[in-house]
Design a protein that fits this description.
Largest sheet: 8 strands, antiparallel
Radius of gyration: 29 Å
Oligomer: single chain
Helix content: 55-70%
Number of strands: 8
Number of domains: 3
Order of helices and strands: HHHHEEEEEEEEHHHHHH
Distance between the termini: 25 Å
Strand content: 5-15%
Shape: elongated
Amino acid sequence: MRLLQRYVALELFRVFVMVLMAISILLVFVGVFQQAAENGLGPAEVLQILPYVIYSLLPITIPAAMLLTVTVVYGRMSGDQELIVARAAGINILSLLMPALLMGAVLSCSALLLTDQIIPWSIDKIQETVLVKMEKIFLDQLRSDHQFIDPNGGVAITVIDVEGKTLIKPTIRYSPKDGQTFTIQAESANIRFDIAERTATIKVVGGYIDMNDGRGAWIREEEYPFPLPLMDKQRKARHMAVDMISSELVNLQAAGTERESRQTILSAMNLMTGGFEEFSRQDFVDLMQGDLVDEQRTNKLKAEYHGRFAMASSCFFFVLVGSPISIMQAKRQFLTTFFIVFMPIVFAYYPIIMLSMNQAKNGTLEAWWVMWIANLITGIIGFLLLRKLLQN
């Protein structure tokens, strides 16, 4: 890299770091307060999740910071006539834009790494902090009220006392929406929260289990998992790495193929035997519902998979549009240039991204191409602006 390009690259890096820090500091408090409000976190828990919230906000702040950086650097250089001097010396303007384009490409790869690896890890860390808080709330409520009821999860627990994490003489009633209700009376029990499995496991020592169909059995030592309250049973797509998304898509495809084979066999048997009423049986309906649920999950995973690459690439496309406009404006009021570029991005680029995401999640359009429409439009505009800049 020649001296002038190194000068431009250092200017870009210096301004980018300062802008990124300023934007991140402003947004991080919003993210922290949101997490604290949603999960009832105290000051100690807020300080624990603070570093992880920063990671989750970087994919949002990096493109905006890079756009503001190129408007500041190239707008100042153009306003101070530095670019005219470079042109007079026979230096191609494109060579001065290469540091910004290269930096945009590197930041796009970094944003992809963040969304694919770092953010899922940071989300897990935030949920672990929330889980510790949830466990404390659970045990404190049992100590004070001697009962805990989660109507959504179908779990009701009453105890005589709580010693540490040990429940003394608990009575546990579990009423799942799609299963059999049972009641456990035990001498003692310990509870363990598992964020990876989205479950709370209760280890019962010395008790009796009573099923709602009249059956019962004595328990010497047994573990029973329950769904965690206030947590989704299924991991959200945006909290998953690309390899996890790919693996689940393969599993969903295999499950769909198996269900399709079963539906074909059942339909053929019903048609051959004239048992048309069998089509309304619950097992056949469950197969149809399973197809619908898996299709919705597949569409969401595909939208997240392709949208992750498209959103990460926005840094490069923002540079491609912002740099020529900044040079053409040739003003030292970089904020004016920034808003000239940023307003169309806010009111056009991101709405197109959101619309494309919704269409992909609904299965109306294929995610592999619809998620790239906004970048394609931005790239064409940037190419035309760059061509006009080089011609003039």
